[in-house]
Amino acid sequence: MPPPQFWKPGAAAPGSSLDRETEAEGSLLPSTSRNAHLSLEAQRQRLPIYKHREKLLYCVEKYRVVIVVGQTGSGKSTQIPQYLHEAGWTKENHVVACTQPRRVAATSVATRVAEEVGSVLGDEVGYSIRFEELSSPTRTRIKYMTDGMLFRETMMDPLLSRYSVIMIDEAHERGAYTDLLLGLLKKIMRKRPELRVIISSATIDAEDFLEYFNSNADGTDRTKDDAIIVSLEGRMFPVEVCYLKDPPVDYVEAAVQTVFNIHMKEPPGDILVFLTGREEIDGALQTVADRIQTISKAAPKLLPLPLYATLPPEEQDLIFEPPPRDTRKIIFSTNIAEASVTIDGIKYVVDSGFVKMKTFNPRNGMDVLSVTPCSLASANQRAGRAGRTSAGKCFRLYPSSVIPTRNPYSPMPISTPPELTRSDISVYLLQLKALGIDNLAKFDFMSPPPSEMMVRALEFWYCLKAIDEEGRLTRPLGVRMAEVPLDPMMAAILLNSQEFRCGEEILTIAAMTQVQNVFNMSDGGNKAMLSELERRKFTAEEGDHLTLLNAYNAFTRYGQKDKSWCGNHRINHKALSRAMAIRKQLKKYLDRFGIKVESCQGDAKRLRRCLVSGYFKNAARMMPDGTYRSARENAVLHVHPSSVMFTRQPSTGWVIFHEVIETTKSFMRDLTVVEEEWLVELAPHFYTFKGGGLKKH
Ligand code: CDP
Ligand code: MG
């Protein structure tokens, strides 16, 4: 039976900039204001987890691994580290670590916990996310961090000896670094019997973690177990789930219609709508704004709000505030509201059934961010958000036949496949090698990556000269690449910049590719036109990387201390300031490695050649019809509308690009014009010349 048409992702207008969901910016989310009249201590005691405090502490004493399952909002992330701290697990300079899959979750939970503990953020309670550390090496006792940061820490301290307890939060999401950490922790635990590990997970996956960690595998004598599941049966109200009879043609439109139906027919209560990304959310808000005019003046008011990771903090505040009287709050959110962020007062959930996810696409040989059906586990989690404060309703914008337990042919998976099994693993592979884990086949992955992906990753690293023929890390290049906190391609470019004598400029470009929304381009209509005109002032014929460089240089000269300059030129002050901070940190790496940082003195060719030395894999050629073909897989690619190359043609016919985003088409983002010969010259193992065109080696 072919999958129903409906499961094609709804049309996403390729007009505005896309949210980079996978590398969410870390802006702080404020704590909720519910129960604000209660003291923080009283609020803590009202959380569902509080009843389980003693049991949890007992289990952590007795078992080496404790798997905690419980509804979102029950207090796992904020309370468990505090209980451990209070119970003495942080004595003798020990630290309790709690990892989060997302930056925004790490900073927001740390902020809340610092408040509860009565500490200044960065003192007793701190956090560490990429390019941002707010903690004290001597005083911090509870440390929230992204799982990637803790993984990196094992390069410096292989046994993670500072930590007495490590809590892996949201482990059911099975992000790549979560899985890698689980494997490493298993190894570390063999050498550190006193180390305790806490896994927080959704109920559905708890048994898998137990099986993975419990060394008492045959399970006949339960007293020999060294892992246990603790369930916090938090208060949950029933949620009635409704389905659409027929799949909608456009789920964004269907979501908006459903919102108005709820608003006109259902009792008071706020609405949470799950869409997949910023551009859909902005579209939905626009439609709601247009349609609000048509509803009766007598009807209660509507307050529509967006929620996504890159939202500016001022706008995030609004999400958590109770709406004005007689007003229904409607939040259009990405899956960030699924588990990481808790909003009180939600009674209705509208679920599109889709999520934006990074997956390896064998057609073009790279990871792409694409809209795909979410898993049943996600759908259930979303529905649960309606039942936190009272009985609720969840409206699923798909027919019940899509539920995989009812239909084995459904495109909806039961649970989300672990990231390591569905994405390009090259970045992780090098880091594992740097940890001395050379034989990846022997690493105890909870779900091993497909061997084809391992081979691909090895080949890629070999072409980047990071490993030798035997698969060993090269010195110093490979070792340094693993250390620099950038994606493999950018790391290579940065380290190669000495050879091309353009370190000054490459540092800037590397930093600028790490921040989002450099130009405020998202406004519609006339404003978009003005933004585009402003951006043209910085636009370089050579493409986006040099345009970013121009914007940065103008910013440091004119805009750094002058916000109105930034406003006038549609330059995002916050993003640029962050790029400056990142650049400074990257410079420290180069200094430490003794890499000479020179300026190319305006010689753009050197810069572009240096970019090719890392980006060679992401090369594409323009076709007569204006589309592109990837150099190696010959896959069809398009220029993303946000690129300065959208309205230009590469003089040489060739470009390299940073990444591919899939919506209605495969879009290349961040492009630079290059020469075909450079690809062969700088990546001889990846390409060879045959008959005038590039051929796969
Ligand atoms: O981790 P889990 O979902 O079980 O709950 P949590 O994140 O520890 O949140 C427990 C409660 O703390 C929430 O219901 C919020 O009321 C509050 N909280 C907050 O006010 N601000 C945050 N940034 C996080 C949690
Ligand atoms: Mg949590």
From TrEMBL:
Domain (Helicase ATP-binding) spans 57-222
* Substrates-to-products reaction catalysed: ATP + H2O = ADP + phosphate + H(+)
Does the record's keyword annotation contain Ribosomal protein? no
Spell out the residue ranges making up region: Disordered.
1-20
Q: Which UniProt keywords apply?
A: ATP-binding, Hydrolase, mRNA processing, mRNA splicing, Nucleotide-binding
Q: Return the Gene3D superfamilies for the record.
A: 1.20.120.1080, P-loop containing nucleotide triphosphate hydrolases
Where does the Helicase C-terminal domain start and stop, copy by copy? Answer: 255-436
Q: Which GO terms describe its cellular component?
A: catalytic step 2 spliceosome
Q: Name one GO biological process term.
A: mRNA processing
What PROSITE patterns does the annotation carry? DEAH_ATP_HELICASE, HELICASE_ATP_BIND_1, HELICASE_CTER
Can the keyword Ribonucleoprotein be found in this entry's annotation?
A: no
Question: What is the designated name of this protein?
Answer: RNA helicase
Q: Which organism is it from?
A: Naematelia encephala
